[in-house]
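ARCHIVE CARD
Drawer: 12
Card no.: 0347
Subject: one protein chain, sequence and derived structure
Cross-reference: see card 0346
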Amino acid sequence: MDSWPTALHGAVELRANASGPIVRHEAEGVAITVSLDSATYAPRQRVGVRARVLIADGAHLYGRPLPRGYTPLTLTVDAPAGMTVESATYPPPTPLLLPALGETLPVYSGVLDLSAYVTGEEVREDVAIAVTLVWQVCTETDCLVPQTTTVSLPLRYRP
């Protein structure tokens, strides 16, 4: 089975997505790579969905919890009925004092790796996995307009 990349990633936290599809997206202040651990799946196989976010120097993205009015980084995975989707996991954000706001807020900076998982329970056909990321790039003094991108990753059924 091609589940070894998912198991390897989980065991030793390596980027092991070489066998799955990869989509790249760039926007002001971020470069995003979204991938699957495998190009194929079999019944009950757990496939990792990975997002690597490179955040520009001097910029940050918000984590959780946040006061109302801020946009946290969010990864959402949608799969066809009959597939199980596990919620995304996020590393802990770092508290950052923002003097211009007079608040300390949870933020991410640098390189950030997110993951979620899909499992083919009842689906026995090729599918597309939709991955949506929402974020807002900010500096200590300015915030850009929140952004959303959705990518579709093909996942072939393998009996």
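Annotation on reverse: The chain has one helix and twelve strands. The first strand starts at residue 22 and ends at 27.
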